[in-house]
Design a protein that fits this description.
Structural class of chain A: mainly beta
Radius of gyration of chain B: 22 Å
Number of domains of chain B: 1
CATH class of chain B: Mainly Beta
CATH superfamily of chain B: SoxY domain
Oligomer: heterodimer
Protein name (chain B): SoxY
InterPro entries (chain B): SoxY (IPR032711), SoxY_sf (IPR038162), Sulphur_oxidation_SoxY (IPR016568)
Largest sheet of chain B: 6 strands, mixed
CATH architecture of chain B: Sandwich
Strand order of the largest sheet of chain A: 1-7-6-3-4
CATH topology of chain B: Immunoglobulin-like
Low-confidence stretches of chain B: 24-28
Distance between the termini of chain A: 19 Å
Mean pLDDT of chain B: 84
Pfam families (chain B): SoxY
Number of strands of chain A: 7
Largest interface: A-B, 28 and 30 residues
Order of helices and strands of chain B: HHEEEEEEEEE
Strand content of chain A: over 45%
Domain Ig-like SoxY (chain B): 43-148
Order of helices and strands of chain A: EEEEEEE
Structural class of chain B: alpha+beta
Organism (chain B): Sinorhizobium meliloti (strain SM11)
C-alpha cells in the first residue's frame, strides 16, 4: 500500500505484504523428515532505480511477511518492491509515485 | 606422604574458594545477559540508548505473529545516520530475526513487522550508526503460546 502522490520532501509510509509460508527448515513432517527451509530472505525497495530500503529476513519473521517503513518524497519516480525467496526466485511489484 | 595439619588447612581453603566461585551466579540481571549476548555476536560493546526504541507488546497471545516496531532518533544526513538495525531473539533456536538497512536522505529509520518467538524472552535490537557506534535496546515479551520455528 503506497500513496499515489506526495509533496516534495514529505515523508510517506509504505506497507508491503506478501503471501508466503516462510518454512523455517526446523520442522519435520509426519515421517520425521525435515521439511526444507523456504523463506523470503530479502526485501528491497528501489525508488527511481536507487535502493532506499533493504531488509534481510531470517527464519523468525512471521508467515506472510509484513513490512511498514517510511520514505522521503524526493521526486517523481517508480517504486520497485522485490522479495527474494530461497532458491533465488524473486517477486516484484511496481508503483508510480507523483511528487509535486 | 603424610597428611599434616598444614596440608589439611590449605586444601580446605582451596576447596571452599572453588565452591564459592562456582556457586556465585555469573549473571544477576537481565541486562548483563543481553550485553554478553551482543558482545558474543558482534565482538564489540553496544551502548543501551533511548535513541533506539523497540516497541513490542509485553504480553501476546501467540508467538507466531508478534508485532514489532523500531525507530531511531537520527537526522539521517550523510554525516550522521543509521546504517542498519539488527534484531535478535536470543531464546529462539535461530537467534537472528532480521536486519533493516536505511539510506541517508531517502528513508527514515522506522520500521514495523511481525516476528515469531519460540519462548518468552527479551528481544534485542542493535543499531549501527554511521560513526560506528552500536546502540542497543531490549523489550521483554511474554508469549502465551510459543511460535513453532
Amino acid at each position: 500500500m503506497v500513496p499515489g502522490s506526495a509533496t516534495k520532501n514529505e515523508v510517506f509510509t509504505v506497507k508491503a505484504i506478501i503471501q508466503h509460508q516462510m518454512e523455517t527448515g526446523l520442522r519435520t513432517d509426519s515421517t520425521g523428515k525435515t521439511i526444507p527451509r523456504k523463506i523470503i530472505n530479502q526485501f528491497v525497495c528501489r525508488y527511481g532505480g536507487v535502493e532506499v530500503f533493504r531488509t534481510d529476513l531470517h527464519e523468525a519473521v512471521s508467515a506472510n511477511p509484513f513490512l511498514e517503513f517510511q520514505l522521503l518524497a524526493t521526486g517523481n519516480g517508480l517504486l520497485e518492491f522485490s522479495w527474494r525467496e530461497d532458491g533465488g526466485a524473486t517477486y516484484s511489484l511496481y508503483h508510480d509515485i507523483v511528487v509535486t | 606422604m603424610s597428611l599434616t595439619r598444614r596440608h589439611m588447612l590449605t586444601s580446605t581453603i582451596g576447596t571452599v574458594a572453588c565452591a564459592v566461585a562456582l556457586l556465585t551466579p555469573k549473571h544477576t540481571r537481565g541486562t548483563d545477559e543481553v550485553e554478553d549476548f551482543l558482545f558474543r555476536i558482534t565482538g564489540r560493546k553496544a551502548t543501551p540508548s533511548n535513541r533506539l526504541r523497540l516497541v513490542m507488546p509485553a504480553e501476546f497471545s501467540t508467538g507466531y505473529t508478534v508485532p514489532m516496531s523500531i525507530s531511531v532518533d537520527s537526522p539521517m544526513t550523510e554525516a550522521d545516520h543509521v546504517k542498519s538495525v539488527r534484531v535478535f531473539a536470543p531464546k529462539n533456536p535461530l537467534v537472528e530475526v532480521a536486519q533493516f538497512h536505511f539510506v541517508p536522505g531517502r528513508s527514515l529509520p522506522r520500521v514495523s513487522t511481525r516476528v515469531r518467538l519460540a519462548a518468552p524472552q527479551h528481544v534485542v535490537a542493535l543499531a549501527e550508526m554511521s560513526n560506528g557506534n552500536l546502540l542497543t535496546a531490549k523489550a521483554w515479551v511474554a508469549v502465551a503460546t510459543n511460535g513453532c520455528l
